[in-house]
């Protein structure tokens, strides 16, 4: 499994997990976050590997669709880059640093 895809799916899951069904959340979390194999997930839920595979593929598409419509993850990345740039450019401005820290904590 590609590390970039795993990282992206984990990030999208963090933003959109509440919009998924319990089954979708369980399968995606076990597969991407906990590194379970399809067979291990299938055994745990007493379903076929194909059922797990199909559910994961559908859920990946759902997560990507949410991101295309809502842009929560991509907006977060842009904000984080801007915050980092400002903090590096104005390291001695305590007021600005404090405000950036507050804004950053809202995202997390």
TrEMBL record:
HAMAP family: UPF0122
Protein family membership: Belongs to the UPF0122 family.
Protein name: UPF0122 protein DDV21_006230
SUPFAM superfamilies associated with the record: Sigma3 and sigma4 domains of RNA polymerase sigma factors
Protein species of origin: Streptococcus chenjunshii
Keyword hit for DNA-binding: yes
Gene Ontology molecular function terms on file: DNA binding
Annotated keywords: DNA-binding
Role, per record: Might take part in the signal recognition particle (SRP) pathway. This is inferred from the conservation of its genetic proximity to ftsY/ffh. May be a regulatory protein.
PANTHER family: UPF0122 PROTEIN CBO2450/CLC_2298, UPF0122 PROTEIN YLXM
Keyword DNA-binding tagged: yes
InterPro entries attached to this UniProt entry: RNA_pol_sigma_r3/r4-like (IPR013324), UPF0122 (IPR007394), UPF0122_fam_protein (IPR054831), WH-like_DNA-bd_sf (IPR036388)
